[in-house]
Design a protein that fits this description.
Helix 1 crosses helix 5 and helix 3 (87-112) packs parallel to helix 4. The chain has a seven-stranded parallel beta sheet, with helices on both faces. It contains six helices and seven strands. The chain is an alpha/beta fold. The protein starts with a strand and ends in an 8-residue tail after the last helix. The protein has helices spanning 10-21, 53-57, 87-112, 133-153, 184-197, 208-224, and strands spanning 2-5, 26-30, 41-45, 68-71, 115-122, 158-165, 201-204. The structure holds NADP nicotinamide-adenine-dinucleotide phosphate (NAP).
Length: 232
């Protein structure tokens, strides 16, 4: 059985459809309803940032834990200094809820001695971003946590994969410039490769790597330059 969290739209929805086509039984959890209708599919509406998320998730994992869990939930918005209270929600949805999902699923996998937990992070995890600092920072924590978990779980027969995507053609891909943007089908193809090979870190598409390194250095230089105070 596969558990896909964040699958009413985008990459999670396309992955769910592909897993069902391949013969998996799928349990989907998401904020919205699912357009998927299939005899091997069950959908539960659940906003992951709510305090009752973990207590509601746990009973869905018995009698048998999932063989595969893919955390696809993600939100991001440009920094709005007049509404900074929404910044914390990005961390709660992108990072804290992933950690809560792992805490519900992974101990059951460890007890059974098998399982695969995949989290979809972003190549933005290595950036310091003035435009969307909460998105980059939440993905930095996401990647670091999952890769640490992957190393800790190696001897237990449980695999953890941190997937770092560049732009993917969904409603989440924002901005005027979206270099090397992948189709959703291509992103799903990469996820199927991860399910098969179970790497700790998987980055795609590769042509984005030098671009991200360049952007990281430009930002690093900006942080080193002296800032002149605003004129009054
Ligand atoms: N698209 C990109 O360019 C890109 C690049 C790098 C990494 N990623 C990552 O890939 C993952 C999937 O993104 P996507 O592009 O497929 O985005 P998407 O199309 O917006 O899909 C995200 C899914 O998560 C659900 N969701 C959002 N907030 C939720 C919440 N609080 N509780 C439960 N479900 C929630 C959404 O539900 P609704 O249907 O209600 O919106 C939707 O089903 C994210 O982690 C994202 O950060 C995306």
């Amino acid at each position: 059985m596969a558990l896909v969290v964040g699958n009413s739209d985008g990459i999670g929805l396309a992955l769910t459809r592909e897993l069902l086509r391949l013969g998996w039984t799928v349990l989907g959890l998401s904020r919205s309803d699912s357009p998927v209708r299939h005899e091997s599919y069950r959908h539960v509406r659940m906003p992951v940032q709510e305090p009752d998320y973990a207590p509601r998730l746990k009973p869905l994992l018995s009698p048998a834990p999932p063989d595969l869990c893919v955390y696809c939930v993600g939100i991001g918005q440009p920094l709005d200094l007049s509404r900074m209270e929404q910044e914390a929600e990005v961390f709660e949805v992108n990072l804290t809820a992933m950690v809560k999902t792992a805490a519900c699923v992974i101990p059951l996998m460890v007890r059974r001695g098998s399982g695969h937990f995949i989290g979809i992070s972003s190549m933005a995890d290595e950036l310091v971003s003035a435009e969307a600092p909460s998105y980059s920072a939440s993905k930095a924590g996401f990647s670091s946590y999952l890769e640490g978990l992957a190393l800790a779980l190696r001897p237990k027969g449980v695999y953890v994969t941190n997937v770092r995507f560049g732009f993917v053609d969904t409603k989440m891909a924002k901005g005027d410039m979206k270099p090397f943007m992948m189709s959703v089908d291509r992103a799903v193809h990469h996820l199927l490769t991860c399910i098969e090979r179970k790497p700790i870190r998987y980055t795609a598409p590769w042509p984005m790597v030098p671009l991200m390194k360049l952007q990281r250095w430009v930002t690093r230089l900006k942080t080193l330059l002296p800032v002149s105070p605003p004129k009054r």
